[in-house]
Amino acid sequence: MLKKIKQDFEQVLESDKDSRDLRSLSMSLDTFYALTSALEVGIFQSLMQPKCSSEVAAELGLHAEITEKLCKALASRGYLFREGGSYALSDQARTFLTESSPFYQGNLIKLMQRTRAQRWSSLARALKEGPIAAPSGAQVFDEFFALAMAEGAVGGSLQRTVRALKRMPQFHEARKCLDLGGSHGLYSLAFARLNPDLEVVLFDLAKVIEGAAKKVVSDSEKIVTMAGDFNSDDLGKDYDFVFASDVLYRNEESLRPLLTRIRESLKHDGLLISKHYHIDDLVSDSSAVLFDLMFSVSGTGGVVYSSAGFCRLLESAGFSIVQVDDISSPASPSKIITARKLGH
Fold first, then answer.
1. Is residue 50 located within the same domain as residue 188?
2. What is the DSSP string of 248-292?
3. For the stretch 50-74, what's the b/e string if a residue is b when 16 or more beta carbons lie within 10 angstroms of its beta carbon?
4. Is 182 helix (H, G, I), strand (E, B) or coil?
5. How far apart are CA 191 and CA 115, in angstroms?
6. What is the pLDDT of residues 190-201, one digit of tens each?
7. What is the tally of structural domains in the chain?
8. What is the CA radius of gyration of the chain?
9. Is residue 326 part of a domain?
């Protein structure tokens, strides 16, 4: 490479090319690891009241010099700010990085860290060998996963989904619905509060129901839980709508039978309300593109469809498309696709 630079040295010297965009990728990764480390050792909790870094280090049993440098790094990225010799939490850190906040994102960040360690680090290997199967006995849909997904929901997608459903007359007219793969139960809780005449059935694996979901919905008379595997077990029947959030990322071969079973569980003219990432533009939907790539690395068979492709699949499964609501954000390119059951 040095030989090539020397050979074209005049061109290099006269160029205005700058690789700062590529270098910013490294800065983002550096910031992510600084953030996850600060969460792991409890720095944000320690700074619920402003302190100097030496006080934080003494309280948490940390190395004083490295703690000071980490606090500086977090301040440089807007997570802390410095007042005199003390550090304090920014509004962003207090909202999303302290455990007392209802918007805490710490477990979601830990899941991101685990995902990157387990999946993204294997991308080069997967390119050469094909999808990398998860280790035998690995648990994905456990209580920690449900908690992380709950934190992701309250970070914006729950609110955007609820706003979209509140505009739908069918939602307010509904009397019974299924929250398919409802996990943490926050969507079920929102539905029951927004429509007091609605009975909500939250369906998920038994270990998820007994873990995270029961903590959210156990005191609600309008929400019942149903434990099972939605790929094979009975889903119930006579639902006015089935809500499916981020659970239909699967190839067409395995998705078609599930769509048939969802259709059979609905009343005549019942609705499937699907909230998922979709890839409609490679730039604006880059989060979904990377999500789709991650599925390929892990060998789960997951697929992220375009909106049009998913609509065509729904139509071929006996639904008609009612509407498509774009509730996307830069980090969450989600759309709500509402489809009505055709026939009986």
1. no
2. --S-HHHHHHHHHHHHHHEEEEEEEEEEEE--S-TTTTHHHHHHH
3. bbbbebbbeeeebeeeebbebbebb
4. coil
5. 30
6. 999 999 999 999
7. 2
8. 24
9. yes
Same domain? For 84 and 161 the reply is no
For the record, the structure tokens of 238 come out as 């006579």
Can you read off the two tokens belonging to residue 168? 């739908």
Q: Which of 58-72, 121-135, 301-315 has the lowest mean pLDDT?
A: 121-135
* DSSP letters spanning 112-126: HHHHHHHTGGGHHHH
Q: Establish if 325 belongs to a structural domain.
A: yes
What are phi and psi for residue 96, nearest 5 degrees? Answer: -110, -10
Q: How would you classify the pairing of strands 176-180 and 239-245?
A: parallel
Nearest to 170 by CA among 273, 318, 317: 273
Q: Which domain holds residue 57?
A: 20-99
Prediction pTM value: 0.90
104 lies in a domain? Answer: no
| Last residue within a domain, chosen from 99, 115, 140 | 99
Identify whether residues 272 and 131 lie together within a single domain.
Answer: yes
Residues 30 and 172 in one domain: no
One-letter amino acid at 327 equals I
For the record, the structure tokens of 75 come out as 């301040």
279 residue type, one letter: I
Q: Are 108 and 155 in contact (CB under 8 A)?
A: yes
Closest CA to 93 of 46, 156, 148, 130: 46
Q: Give the residue from 48, 83, 99 where a domain finishes.
A: 99
Q: Let me know whether 167 and 291 are in one domain.
A: yes
Whose CA is closest to 173, among 190, 154, 196?
A: 196
112 is a domain residue: no
Q: Is the separation of the CB atoms in 6 and 77 below 8 Å? A: no
* pLDDT, tens digit (0-9, with 9 covering 90-100), for 228-249: 999 999 999 999 999 999 999 9
Identity of the residue numbered 30? D
Looking at the fold, whether 73 and 151 belong to one and the same domain comes out as no
Q: How many CB atoms lie within 10 A of CB 211?
A: 20
CATH code for the domain of 150: 3.40.50.150
